[in-house]
Protein backbone atom coordinates (compact mmCIF):
# COMPACT_ATOMS: atom_id res chain seq x y z
CA UNK A 1 0.00 0.00 0.00
CA UNK A 2 1.26 3.45 -0.85
CA UNK A 3 0.13 5.82 1.87
CA UNK A 4 -0.66 9.36 0.76
CA UNK A 5 -1.97 10.91 3.89
CA UNK A 6 -1.08 10.26 7.52
CA UNK A 7 -2.53 11.97 10.53
CA UNK A 8 -1.74 11.43 14.18
CA UNK A 9 -5.34 11.70 15.32
CA UNK A 10 -4.80 11.25 19.04
CA UNK A 11 -2.31 10.14 21.64
CA UNK A 12 -4.72 8.41 24.00
CA UNK A 13 -4.35 7.19 27.55
CA UNK A 14 -8.00 6.44 28.25
CA UNK A 15 -10.60 4.44 26.37
CA UNK A 16 -12.84 7.49 26.11
CA UNK A 17 -10.21 9.10 23.86
CA UNK A 18 -10.02 6.34 21.25
CA UNK A 19 -11.28 7.52 17.84
CA UNK A 20 -14.96 6.71 17.34
CA UNK A 21 -15.08 6.15 13.59
CA UNK A 22 -15.36 2.74 11.95
CA UNK A 23 -11.91 2.19 10.41
CA UNK A 24 -10.07 -1.05 11.14
CA UNK A 25 -7.00 -0.92 13.36
CA UNK A 26 -3.64 -2.68 13.36
CA UNK A 27 -1.62 -2.30 16.55
CA UNK A 28 2.16 -2.45 16.85
CA UNK A 29 3.96 -3.68 19.93
CA UNK A 30 7.48 -4.45 21.06
CA UNK A 31 10.04 -3.64 23.68
CA UNK A 32 11.53 -0.15 23.74
CA UNK A 33 14.26 0.33 21.15
CA UNK A 34 13.22 -2.65 19.04
CA UNK A 35 12.74 -0.36 16.03
CA UNK A 36 8.97 0.19 16.17
CA UNK A 37 9.01 3.90 15.30
CA UNK A 38 11.48 3.26 12.48
CA UNK A 39 9.23 0.53 11.10
CA UNK A 40 6.14 2.74 11.21
CA UNK A 41 7.99 5.59 9.51
CA UNK A 42 9.29 3.27 6.81
CA UNK A 43 5.88 1.74 6.13
CA UNK A 44 4.22 5.13 5.80
CA UNK A 45 7.17 6.68 3.98
CA UNK A 46 7.72 9.46 6.45
CA UNK A 47 10.98 10.30 8.06
CA UNK A 48 9.80 11.45 11.43
CA UNK A 49 6.09 10.85 11.87
CA UNK A 50 6.46 8.31 14.65
CA UNK A 51 9.03 9.38 17.21
CA UNK A 52 12.26 7.43 17.15
CA UNK A 53 13.67 7.04 20.54
CA UNK A 54 16.25 9.23 22.17
CA UNK A 55 14.31 8.52 25.33
CA UNK A 56 13.17 4.91 25.24
CA UNK A 57 10.26 4.00 27.43
CA UNK A 58 8.91 7.51 27.50
CA UNK A 59 6.05 7.04 25.11
CA UNK A 60 3.19 6.09 27.40
CA UNK A 61 0.32 6.75 25.08
CA UNK A 62 -1.55 4.85 22.39
CA UNK A 63 -0.81 6.79 19.23
CA UNK A 64 -3.53 6.46 16.61
CA UNK A 65 -2.23 7.17 13.11
CA UNK A 66 -4.93 7.36 10.47
CA UNK A 67 -3.74 6.29 7.02
CA UNK A 68 -5.67 7.58 3.98
CA UNK A 69 -9.09 7.28 5.66
CA UNK A 70 -8.60 3.51 5.36
CA UNK A 71 -7.15 2.20 8.59
CA UNK A 72 -5.31 3.10 11.74
CA UNK A 73 -1.91 2.07 12.93
CA UNK A 74 -2.04 2.07 16.73
CA UNK A 75 1.43 2.49 18.20
CA UNK A 76 1.36 0.87 21.66
CA UNK A 77 3.79 1.96 24.41
CA UNK A 78 7.12 0.09 24.26
CA UNK A 79 7.48 -2.41 27.10
CA UNK A 80 10.39 -3.83 29.04
CA UNK A 81 12.43 -0.71 29.54
CA UNK A 82 14.46 -1.31 32.69
CA UNK A 83 14.63 2.28 33.88
CA UNK A 84 10.89 2.68 34.03
CA UNK A 85 9.55 2.27 37.56
CA UNK A 86 7.38 -0.69 38.54
CA UNK A 87 4.41 1.61 38.94
CA UNK A 88 4.88 2.98 35.43
CA UNK A 89 5.27 -0.53 34.04
CA UNK A 90 1.96 -1.50 35.57
CA UNK A 91 0.39 1.61 34.11
CA UNK A 92 1.75 0.69 30.64
CA UNK A 93 0.46 -2.82 30.82
CA UNK A 94 -2.93 -1.56 31.95
CA UNK A 95 -3.07 0.83 28.98
CA UNK A 96 -2.04 -1.93 26.58
CA UNK A 97 -4.31 -4.62 28.03
CA UNK A 98 -7.36 -2.38 28.11
CA UNK A 99 -6.89 -1.63 24.44
CA UNK A 100 -6.19 -5.23 23.37
CA UNK A 101 -9.06 -6.70 25.35
CA UNK A 102 -11.77 -4.22 24.49
CA UNK A 103 -11.13 -2.93 21.01
CA UNK A 104 -13.46 -4.59 18.53
CA UNK A 105 -11.98 -2.69 15.57
CA UNK A 106 -8.59 -4.27 16.27
CA UNK A 107 -7.89 -6.62 13.35
CA UNK A 108 -4.38 -7.74 14.17
CA UNK A 109 -1.16 -6.97 16.01
CA UNK A 110 2.33 -6.63 14.61
CA UNK A 111 4.64 -7.90 17.34
CA UNK A 112 8.24 -6.79 16.97
CA UNK A 113 11.36 -8.60 18.17
CA UNK A 114 15.02 -7.89 17.41
CA UNK A 115 16.39 -10.38 14.88
CA UNK A 116 19.71 -10.59 16.73
CA UNK A 117 18.45 -11.41 20.22
CA UNK A 118 16.57 -14.20 21.88
CA UNK A 119 13.02 -13.05 22.61
CA UNK A 120 12.73 -11.64 26.14
CA UNK A 121 10.24 -12.93 28.71
CA UNK A 122 8.14 -9.86 27.89
CA UNK A 123 8.21 -10.72 24.18
CA UNK A 124 7.06 -14.26 24.92
CA UNK A 125 4.38 -13.06 27.31
CA UNK A 126 3.05 -10.62 24.71
CA UNK A 127 2.95 -13.28 22.00
CA UNK A 128 1.19 -15.78 24.25
CA UNK A 129 -1.25 -13.13 25.41
CA UNK A 130 -2.22 -12.25 21.83
CA UNK A 131 -2.68 -15.92 20.94
CA UNK A 132 -4.73 -16.51 24.07
CA UNK A 133 -7.15 -13.76 23.11
CA UNK A 134 -7.32 -15.05 19.54
CA UNK A 135 -5.91 -11.85 18.05
CA UNK A 136 -4.18 -12.39 14.67
CA UNK A 137 -0.47 -11.70 15.07
CA UNK A 138 2.40 -11.07 12.70
CA UNK A 139 5.82 -11.47 14.28
CA UNK A 140 8.33 -9.09 12.70
CA UNK A 141 12.03 -9.53 13.37
CA UNK A 142 13.55 -6.05 13.07
CA UNK A 143 17.02 -4.81 12.10
CA UNK A 144 17.42 -7.54 9.48
CA UNK A 145 20.36 -5.65 7.98
CA UNK A 146 22.35 -6.45 11.13
CA UNK A 147 22.38 -10.16 10.25
CA UNK A 148 23.82 -11.45 6.97
CA UNK A 149 21.28 -12.85 4.50
CA UNK A 150 22.92 -16.28 4.71
CA UNK A 151 21.90 -16.49 8.39
CA UNK A 152 18.27 -15.46 7.97
CA UNK A 153 16.77 -18.92 7.71
CA UNK A 154 18.65 -20.05 10.78
CA UNK A 155 17.57 -16.99 12.77
CA UNK A 156 13.98 -17.46 11.64
CA UNK A 157 13.94 -21.05 12.89
CA UNK A 158 15.58 -20.09 16.18
CA UNK A 159 13.19 -17.22 16.84
CA UNK A 160 10.14 -19.26 15.92
CA UNK A 161 11.26 -22.02 18.23
CA UNK A 162 11.93 -19.61 21.09
CA UNK A 163 8.45 -18.12 20.74
CA UNK A 164 6.90 -21.54 20.14
CA UNK A 165 5.50 -20.50 16.77
CA UNK A 166 4.22 -23.00 14.22
CA UNK A 167 6.18 -23.08 10.97
CA UNK A 168 3.07 -21.63 9.32
CA UNK A 169 2.60 -18.72 11.75
CA UNK A 170 3.08 -15.32 10.16
CA UNK A 171 6.68 -14.16 10.42
CA UNK A 172 8.71 -11.55 8.51
CA UNK A 173 12.29 -10.34 8.73
CA UNK A 174 12.35 -6.57 8.19
CA UNK A 175 14.86 -3.75 7.95
CA UNK A 176 13.91 -0.11 8.18
CA UNK A 177 17.23 0.74 6.57
CA UNK A 178 16.72 -1.26 3.38
CA UNK A 179 12.91 -1.60 3.45
CA UNK A 180 13.16 -5.34 2.99
CA UNK A 181 10.10 -7.12 4.36
CA UNK A 182 7.84 -4.07 4.02
CA UNK A 183 5.83 -5.60 1.17
CA UNK A 184 5.09 -8.71 3.19
CA UNK A 185 3.99 -6.63 6.16
CA UNK A 186 1.63 -4.59 3.95
CA UNK A 187 0.27 -7.77 2.45
CA UNK A 188 -0.52 -9.11 5.92
CA UNK A 189 -2.09 -5.79 6.94
CA UNK A 190 -4.24 -5.91 3.80
CA UNK A 191 -5.39 -9.43 4.57
CA UNK A 192 -6.42 -8.52 8.11
CA UNK A 193 -8.15 -5.23 7.31
CA UNK A 194 -9.42 -5.90 3.79
CA UNK A 195 -8.27 -2.44 2.63
P1 LIG B 1 11.49 2.13 19.18
O1 LIG B 1 11.91 2.54 20.55
O2 LIG B 1 11.03 0.71 19.15
O3 LIG B 1 10.52 3.05 18.52
O4 LIG B 1 12.83 2.08 18.29
P2 LIG B 1 13.41 3.11 17.20
O5 LIG B 1 12.66 3.01 15.92
O6 LIG B 1 13.54 4.45 17.82
O7 LIG B 1 14.85 2.46 16.93
C1 LIG B 1 15.78 2.23 17.99
C2 LIG B 1 17.18 2.27 17.43
O8 LIG B 1 17.37 1.22 16.50
C3 LIG B 1 17.49 3.56 16.67
O9 LIG B 1 18.82 3.91 16.92
C4 LIG B 1 17.29 3.16 15.21
O10 LIG B 1 18.08 3.92 14.32
C5 LIG B 1 17.75 1.71 15.23
N1 LIG B 1 17.05 0.91 14.20
C6 LIG B 1 15.73 0.78 14.04
N2 LIG B 1 15.42 -0.02 13.00
C7 LIG B 1 16.60 -0.39 12.47
C8 LIG B 1 16.97 -1.24 11.35
O11 LIG B 1 16.13 -1.80 10.63
N3 LIG B 1 18.30 -1.41 11.13
C9 LIG B 1 19.26 -0.83 11.90
N4 LIG B 1 20.54 -1.08 11.60
N5 LIG B 1 18.96 -0.03 12.95
C10 LIG B 1 17.65 0.19 13.23
UniProtKB/TrEMBL annotation:
CDD domains: YihA_EngB
Listed cofactors: Mg(2+)
Gene Ontology cellular component annotations, sorted alphabetically: cytosol
GO molecular function, one term: metal ion binding
Pfam families referenced in this protein's UniProt entry, alphabetically: MMR_HSR1
UniProt xrefs under SUPFAM superfamilies: P-loop containing nucleoside triphosphate hydrolases
Domain of life: Bacteria
InterPro entries per record: G_ENGB_dom, GTP-bd, GTP-bd_ribosome_bio_YsxC, P-loop_NTPase, Small_GTP-bd
PROSITE patterns: G_ENGB (PS51706)
Biological process terms in GO annotation: division septum assembly
Keywords in alphabetical order: Cell cycle, Cell division, GTP-binding, Magnesium, Metal-binding, Nucleotide-binding, Septation
Task of the protein: Necessary for normal cell division and for the maintenance of normal septation.
Family: Belongs to the TRAFAC class TrmE-Era-EngA-EngB-Septin-like GTPase superfamily. EngB GTPase family.
Alphabetical list of PANTHER family matching this protein: ENGB-TYPE G DOMAIN-CONTAINING PROTEIN, MSS1/TRME-RELATED GTP-BINDING PROTEIN
Name of the featured protein: Probable GTP-binding protein EngB
Lineage of source species: Bacteria, Bacillati, Bacillota, Bacilli, Lactobacillales
